[in-house]
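Notes from the 1:1 (GR / supervisor)

We went over the backlog. Supervisor wanted to see one worked example end to end before approving the batch request, so GR pasted a single chain during the call. The sequence is below; no edits were made to it. Supervisor asked that the structure be written out right there so they could see what the output format looks like.
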Amino acid sequence: MPPPRTRGKALRHRLAELRGPDVPAKALDARALAALAANPGCERRAILDGAGVNKAVLADALGAPSVFGQSQFAFMRGNAFEARVKADGGAELLRLVHEKLDAGAEPPTRARVPGLTAVGPEGRAARTALALREATGAAAWTLLDHPMLALDVAGSPAFLEPDAVVVHPDGSWTVVEIKSFPMLDGSADPAKVGAAARQSAVYVLALEEVAARLDPAPRVRHRVLLVCPKDFSNLPTASAVDVRKQRAVTSRQLARLTRIEDIADTLPEGTCFAPDRPAAELTAAVESVPAAYAPECLAACELAFHCRDRSRASGAVTALGRSLRAELGDLTTIDEVLAAAHGEAGDPDDPAVAALRRAAELRAEALAYHPEEPRSRQGVLDDARPEGAPCR
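Structure output shown during the call:
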């Protein structure tokens, strides 16, 4: 058999062909990497993100424009809250880190805040690595405000910018994520906390790559600090979030992403996702890569509307949610589900098929039930009226 096409070419060259010869690559950020980890079975997103395709522009070209993104109001509110948290040299932020993560250490009465300015992302990443090395040996509280970290993704660096990284007096490192959604009575929206945890796990992985280059390697803490407004005020409060599970999932997904040449080998010759291609050709290129749509994609992917339309047209049960898909086992389409429920197909010993048939029987019984004398709405109201109460 002939060798795979991509083995004879550099992976970067192959990805540039998929993106389009004159189309600049869109850099991956922590949000994109976290979204990949949240839907690891989607080959479409993996190849598009690996090739640096701008999915928002691609969605426009496909006729399914995306509304995914953060509003300008939320962006401004988040910046204002972050500035408040980091005021006075990050005194309040370091107090929260000490209280929630390292109460046994000396209180941070005075912290070091090194400058991280440099030319370009590569320069900033190098300056951040140097500052981390110096802070580790200083045995003092150190706050790195918007450091730049580099994470290897598919053979090329992705530059990531966490809100802050704190170096403890014992030399360990903690990621700090600042969000503008409220924390009510000590808890926040679980979906938003989960998204923040996945994003923080990406930063933890990038920090571990920096730590691995030092001797001895500092400890990167797997409990990150999530800072949010307290209740309905603008006062900061915080919670420690364990991201070990999210880190493991993200690490596996990145390892899978580094083998995107396997996905590229399955694509037809000449496949290109350049937005200036004819609509029919562009649609065929996108559809040549399998997707794993779920309603959660609407909050994380620019192509969600396009994939949702295709999923609904094919009758895929994933369009109704991942939890339902997991309950249905081998039944992957709505037609198969209905056939199993009506006894036209499916193994009666399959628990999913048995449950569907029982549900269909109960529904039929409910629809067949008719009271002997249907009562009017007024009659029901009269019976509910206390004796002696006036009629209205």
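Supervisor's comment: The first strand starts at residue 142 and ends at 145.
Batch request approved.
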